[in-house]
Structures are given as C-alpha cells and as structure tokens.
Amino acid sequence: MASTNKDVQYLEEVSHLLDRAKELQDSASSFLSKMKHEEQSILQRVSALQSDLKKLQACVASASASETLDKREAEKLEEELSRAKCMIADGDVSSLLPSKSNGKFLRMFLGPISVRATRKDVQLKVKEEYNNYRDRTAVMFLLFPFALLILRYAIWKGCFPAWAVQLYQAWLLFLYTSLALRENILRINGSDIRPWWIYHHYCAMMMALVSLTWEIKGQPDCYQKQRGIELFLTWAMMQGVAMLLQNRYQRQRLYTRIALGKANRMDVVWGETASVEGQLWLLYPVLFILQGFEAYIGILLLMTAVTSSVSEWQVVVCGGLLVIMASGNFANTVQTLSAKLRFKAKMKRSKSKQDLDQGSLANLRLGKSL
After folding, report:
1. Which regions span the lipid bilayer (predicted)?
2. Is the pLDDT of residue 64 over 70?
3. How many CA atoms lie within 13 A of 125 on its CB side?
4. pLDDT number for residue 101
5. Cβ distance 174 to 250 under 8 Å?
6. H/E/C letters for each residue in 275-287?
7. Cα–Cα distances in Å, from 197 out to 6, 161, 173, 183, 193?
8. Residue-range domain boundaries for the chain
9. What is the pLDDT of residue 176?
10. To 10 degrees, the CA torsion angle through 354, 358, 360, 364?
C-alpha cells in the first residue's frame, strides 16, 4: 500500500515537472516569435534610415560641388552623416544586420557554418585577440630570421641547412594562413579590412607553400646559391621592425578615430594607415623601402631563372609573387598617402578660411567701435 502511494506521488511530481517544461517551452516560443517580429520591424527601419542617409549624402555632395552649399558646412554635414553610419554599423543594431557570406577561403577550412558573433563584446574580443596575435608575430617576424642569419655564420659555417630554412617557411605558411583566417572572420563581423591585404596574405601563403618544395642547395659555392635566401631573411627583419612601429603608433590613431566617430570599433589598422605627422615621415619611407626591396628580390629571382642554365619553377613562381605583392603594397600605400595629403590640404584651406572670417569679424567690430 505504501509502495502504491509512493508511485502515485512520483507520477504526480513527474506530471507537474512535465507541465512546467511545456509551459517554459511555450513561453520561450512566444518570446522568440515576438523578438523575431520586432527584429523585422527594426530591420525595416534600418533599411529606410540607410536609404535616407545615402540620399542626403548625395544631395550634400551635389550641393557642395555646385557651390550652392558652403564647403565648410558641407564637410560638417558629411562628418555628422558618417557618425550616423558608424552608429548603425558599430552599435547594437549591427548584430541584427545580415552578415556577409563566409567566402570560399573560410568555407574551404570551416565549411558553411556561420562565424559571426551576435554579441558585441565577443566581436571586440575577436578583434583584440587579432591585435595581440599581430603583436606576437611581429616580434617573431623580427627574431626568427635574425636568429637564422646569426646561426649561419656562428654554427653552420656560412651555409643554411635545408631543415632550418624549411622550418622557417613552414612557420610563414602557418602565420599567413592564420592571419587570413582571422581577417576573414573579422570582415564578417563588421571590420573594414581592405581586400588587398587579405589577397596579399593569400599570395604569401602560396609563396611559402612553394618554398617548401624548393631544394636548398649547399656546398660548393654555398654563398652564391643561397644569396636569395639571405636577401629574403634581411627583408623579413625589416618587415618585423615596420610591423612593430605600425602596431605601436597606429592603434592609438585608430582609437582616436573611433572616439571621433570616423571609424568602427571593429576596424583594424594595417600597413597603409598612418597617424600623426611625425609618423607620416617615419613610417612611409620605411614602407617604400620595404616595398622596393621586396620587388628587388622578386626581380633578382626572375633574372636568376632567366640566366641560369638549370631553372627551377619555384624560382619563377616566388619571384613573380614577390613582384605582385610589392606592386600591390605600393599602389595601396600611394593611394592612402594621396588621400591623407588631400585631407590635410582641405583642413588647411578650411582653417585659413576660418581665420580669415574671424579676422574680418574683428575688423568689423573695431570699425563699429571707432
């Protein structure tokens, strides 16, 4: 009899818990349905706002070009419109916007799964980890080739062993692959990364992969045979120094742009960006020297392939990729430098006009007082 009472009690408890589970399921379904309805309403408002912003921006640009609107007022209006766009792209609204497609590269490694973070704090954590990874790899980019060049004469008697060079090329392949993966994920999460820098890492990945199949020749005449390797390691050290300079100075500039509403919190800095005027004269010469040296190594490899009696296909591929990367880097750097110089000239004209207006107002007040 006691056993029967316990069975009934257990059945009642199970039934009660089952009812609670069904009630919770109904509440969650109702909440998700309501949230989806509100999300659609917000997306419609976002679409309408983006359309209005685009139309107004076109009107301001047209009025400024036809001189029916003062240039200085047009610039102020454009800045305010840019802030409004940043609020949409960088605020909580961005989590509701449709995400970009993964692209072939991400699908090849991860499949069709979505890598977009719905929470802003998670997105910012992804970006911060990317910046920290760049800091770590910049140090390795400098120390790894430096160690190889020192060991060449200290231990290896002026001749690189094949395993050391191939280990370095394997590390480069891992580095550029991981950077390309992280940048594609950042792009999907709203970061404004120039497409060229992702393509640049694709080219670097291909070059590192090809280099792994390249036979490292030794004695006799080891110095002449490994001249290209020495030049490449020297360039890599210079690249490491440039990366450290960029990481240190440019991030501070990006934070300033974010605070002014001219950049999103998910944006990152890369090789073509610069900040204050002192950096302009420090970083850009370093970047141009690096790009010239990179092109020189590529041309040297191509000339070796033409003049050598036994030409290896790896020489032609690596030389061509180095020239392509140097040309693309140079074009992007010149484009950004031109934009910055135009912006500085516009700011000077605006400041000169403002000083002239203030001077005219002061003279007018002085005339009235007399």
Report:
1. 137-155, 167-185, 197-216, 228-245, 281-307, 313-339
2. yes
3. 7
4. 74
5. no
6. CCHHHHHHHHHHH
7. 70, 32, 16, 9, 7
8. 2-96, 104-354
9. 92
10. 150
